[in-house]
UniProtKB/TrEMBL annotation:
Compositional bias annotation for Basic and acidic residues: 298-309
Protein name: FSD1-like protein
Fibronectin type-III domain span: 164-268
Keyword set, alphabetical order: Coiled coil
Lineage of producing organism: Eukaryota, Metazoa, Chordata, Craniata, Vertebrata
Domain COS: 105-162
Region (Disordered): 290-344
CDD domains per UniProt: FN3, SPRY_PRY_FSD1
Domain of life of the source: Eukaryota
B30.2/SPRY domain boundaries: 292-484
Length: 507
């Protein structure tokens, strides 16, 4: 009994699944039938419109050519009619003169005869019949306006539906990914003179290999491309790969997509770690701004551990620090519960770190200071940076420091040593870190001119690090190492020897 019930239950489940499949298939067929009706009506309308346009062109050509024939007929008729009128008048005059001459022959009086003869001679000299050209000014020939549409008739009889374009083929060796620009090149498998334009579609993905049917990101579309290549510029590489596909279009239809390709777009992506920054820093994903009110308004009651914290702050006041200017700070005591995890940095270490470490490879990012920023540092550090440590003052931090407070200074700092940099402060600073090669270089991000380079040996993973006081910084991440920087590194090897006073081998 139980086995029969289980068998029946399996049959019920199978039937239910099959019914669900049938419902889905019926929906698909209904949708296809509705789409077929709509699409058929559309192509019928398009065909009728094309034939109406063609008939309109033929009507215009017929009217134009008919008018040409009528105008030629009118011109020739006018010429011949004028000649006919002139000739008729000349004939009448000539006949009258002939009759007068015949009658003069019968004159017997010599003097009267001489007078008539002279008169006839003068009239003959001036007679229109002797001044007319006896050649028609126009002919009755109209064959120069004949037509022969046999070829056109064959062409019209050869009208047929426009073929759907073939799928293009993406030429992977001709595709290029560099400097956050992607150039995609393709070709048609067979020459097609009817191609009007191409459509490029792309999307970011973190999946290697062939694109998945369903991905977390939608396809982006670039239309009306006339050439067989296209460059996407200004991209942020915040995914590991990008998928590409192309389709060709003629005036009537779009062809199938090309076989998709996946190009690698790896770059260094990170955000600022807002949970562990100094309380006087207002941190967003890629922006940090000094906020003098950042520590105010919190509870100041101290008991137990809080007394220890208060004493710690008192000791801070008595510490003498140089380098980073000291703004007027509040002595508000914060309980551990209220400040949460944001006690990573304190004192004058107005520091925030990136949330992604570098353990290998070559990486690049850019930093732009807000206008009138008083003091800031850009560099890298090991994660074990102390909460009171300042960038460049330990042997595990490397940075360049810009100080616009009172007197402007621009220096490279490491292990509490500073090297003055005799170059203008760039509007945007490019940071290049070659972890395996032990190199940290700073560039003018616009001109790619080297500002300073550290040569060292990283014994631990490093993270991007930033110090800000009275101002703010904006980061640009998802950038490839620029070609100009790669070339410079290959040819100059970082110029480590010129900065030997700041190079070190951290213990």
């Amino acid at each position: 009994m139980d086995s029969q019930k289980e068998a029946l239950q399996r049959i019920v489940t199978t039937l239910a699944n099959k019914n669900e499949e049938l419902h889905s298939f019926i929906d698909t067929l209904s949708h296809s039938l509705a789409g077929l009706q709509i699409n058929s009506a559309q192509v019928l309308s398009d065909v009728e419109e094309e034939f109406d346009t063609l008939l309109s062109v033929l009507d215009e050509m017929r009217e134009s050519m008919t008018n040409n024939i009528k105008q030629e007929q009118a011109r020739k008729s006018h010429e011949l009619q004028n000649q006919l009128t002139q000739s008729t008048n000349a004939l009448e005059s000539s006949e009258e003169l002939l009759e007068f001459a015949n009658s003069a022959l019968d004159i017997k009086e010599e003097e009267e005869f001489a007078k008539a003869a002279k008169q006839i001679k003068d009239r003959v000299t001036m007679a229109p019949a002797f001044r007319l050209t006896m050649k028609p000014r126009a002919t009755d020939n109209m064959t120069h306006l004949m037509v022969d549409f046999s070829q056109e008739r064959q062409l019209l009889q050869g009208l047929k539906f426009l073929p759907v374009p073939s799928a293009p083929e993406i030429e992977i060796p001709d595709c290029l990914v560099a400097d956050n620009v992607i150039r995609v090149a393709w070709r048609m498998p067979v020459e097609d003179s009817k191609i009007d334009h191409y459509i490029l579609e792309y999307r970011k993905t973190n999946h290697e290999g062939l694109p998945r049917v369903k991905d977390e990101r939608c396809w982006e579309v670039v239309e009306n491309i006339k050439a067989t290549e296209y460059s996407l510029s200004g991209l942020k590489f915040d995914s590991k790969f990008m998928n590409f596909r192309i389709r060709a279009c003629n005036k009537a239809a779009a062809g199938d997509y090309s076989d998709p390709v996946t190009l690698e777009t790896r770059a260094f992506n990170f955000c600022l770690d807002s949970t562990s920054s100094h309380l006087n820093l207002k941190v967003e994903e890629r922006n940090v701004e000094w906020d003098p009110q950042g520590g105010k308004g919190l509870e100041s009651k101290v008991k137990g551990k809080e007394n220890k914290g208060s004493a710690h702050l008192t000791n801070l006041k008595n510490m003498s620090r140089s380098g980073t200017p000291s703004p007027k700070r509040t002595s508000t005591t914060r309980s551990p519960a209220m400040r949460g995890s944001r006690d990573r940095f304190t004192g004058e270490s107005y520091t925030v770190l990136g949330d992604t470490g570098i353990e290998s490879g070559q990486h690049y990012w850019e930093v732009k200071a807000l206008k009138d920023c008083k003091s800031y540092s850009v560099g890298v550090t090991y994660r074990n940076l102390g909460k009171f440590d300042q960038l460049g003052k330990t042997n595990t931090t490397w940075c360049i420091h810009i100080n616009n407070w009172l007197q402007t200074s621009f220096a490279a700092k490491h292990n509490n040593k500073a090297k003055s940099l005799e170059v203008p402060v760039p509007d945007r600073i490019g940071v290049y870190c070659d972890f395996d090669g032990g190199q940290l270089s700073f560039y003018n991000a616009d001109s790619k001119q080297l500002v300073h380079s550290f040569k060292t040996k990283f014994s631990q993973p490093v993270v991007p690090a930033f110090m800000v006081w009275c101002g703010g910084l904006t980061l640009s991440t998802g950038l490839q190492v620029p070609s100009a920087v790669r070339s410079f590194q290959k040819t100059e090897n970082g110029l480590g020897g010129s900065n030997s006073s700041l190079n070190s081998m951290p213990q």
